[in-house]
Amino acid sequence: MKDYFIGNKEYFPGIGKIAYEGAGTDNPLAFRFYDPDKKIGNKTMREHLRFSIAYWHSFCAGGNDPFGADTHHFPWAVKADPMEAAKDKVDAAFEFITKIDAPFYCFHDRDLAPEGKSIAESEKNLMELAGMAKERQEATGVKLLWGTANLFNHPRFMNGAATNPNFDVIPFAAAQVKAAIDATILLGGGGYVFWGGREGYMSLLNTDMKREKEHLLRFLTAARDYGRKAGFKGTFMIEPKPMEPTKHQYDYDAETVAAFIKTNGLEKDFAINIENNHATLAGHTFWHDLQVAADNGLLGSVDANQGDYQNGWDTDQFPSNVYETARAMMVILENGGFTYGGLNFDAKRRRNSTDPADLFYAHIGGMDAFALGLEIAYNINTKSELPKRKSTRYASFDSGKGAEFEAGKLSLEELRNIALDAREPETISGNQELLENILNRYMFVR
């Protein structure tokens, strides 16, 4: 990647390109653990982690919440003309992305360009800004990880987009998705994500779930068919979330999405984009949903954030829990690593973090947390006894009658007959506390 980008104006003056200075540095604007060129196995940290900056939280989210107005005021958002402000935002974004030294970014259509007064004007706005972003990509080497459409903010989508009970809404959603796919193709994105922010219900009193889910399938297959016809060669992804803003969303968790994809024969074109905070809202761990996606051959990409276990909503905090990042990277490495996906920081500064430098501190901390997690995970997977202990626990299925059972060669009657002549099964310890001790040994001894 080339040096950092400055457009017509520097939006983060006094902050240069963030460099790796090592664990002993006192510089808050430096990486302590993320050394992009350090080899872990046969790939560098940059190649393993594939960090991406979320356009929406970093350059659009003003820090507002249900109880208060914006606290983050952006110098790139001051022009009265929305298109001119959007162009300034592109320059600010690429300045930040190149200064933080991230290789990728992600966007919603409405993050990049403002909605127009008509479908045609909205499409024109998006493609004009996408063209500008393409020029910045070519100038800097930054790439688009994936694109998506915002089908949840506008009042027309209050009852959903693809699952809206009013057909008149669906063509508007389709127009947005078509344009967002076009922009993703133009920018060379490796993926396209569907997050069903309002694809669910608030009350079953007025909801036909079966019909709405059938409509969702129709919409996704139509989007897939258009994308392939238009030349999109990447992977479509569905991002699970259990609720919020709806009471119940149809993409509840990784297991639900995997079942939807496989039941409907979409696995050649679709995968899953896992977000940590969404997994915890579903009552799972980040580790669990990643493992479910990987076990189904559907782990596409990751939205790297974390939630607050004392808050029952999607707080989208920057990742700092190294236990979580290590466990996540254990699964990702076991799965062969990323191809088209990566670690996208779908995270936002806290409402009271109002200094421009806070955006850098937040990303530096998240990148360092995953760099630590990567090294720990690699050592656990390749040097510790944990993988062997897990496989040994299932050794009785590797030969004999256990192997026959796994192969589907034993009927219920045959299993019963085996039990007739067998002794009571031995009580075999799971050694959970020992395994936790082994994990801690690798967590804290480097």
From TrEMBL:
InterPro entries: Xyl_isomerase-like_sf, Xylose_isom_bac, Xylose_isomerase. It is found in: Cytoplasm. Its EC number is 5.3.1.5. Mg(2+) 2 binds at E275, H278, D314, D316. Mg(2+) 1 binds at E239, E275, D303, D346. It is an enzyme of class 5 (isomerase). It comes from the Bacteria. GO terms for biological process: D-xylose metabolic process. The active site is at H108, D111. GO terms for molecular function: magnesium ion binding; xylose isomerase activity. Keywords: Carbohydrate metabolism, Cytoplasm, Isomerase, Magnesium, Metal-binding, Xylose metabolism. GO terms for cellular component: cytoplasm. Belongs to the xylose isomerase family. NCBIfam families: PRK05474.1 (NF003998), xylose_isom_A (TIGR02630). This is Xylose isomerase. It comes from Sediminispirochaeta smaragdinae (strain DSM 11293 / JCM 15392 / SEBR 4228) (Spirochaeta smaragdinae). The lineage of its organism: Bacteria, Pseudomonadati, Spirochaetota, Spirochaetia, Spirochaetales.
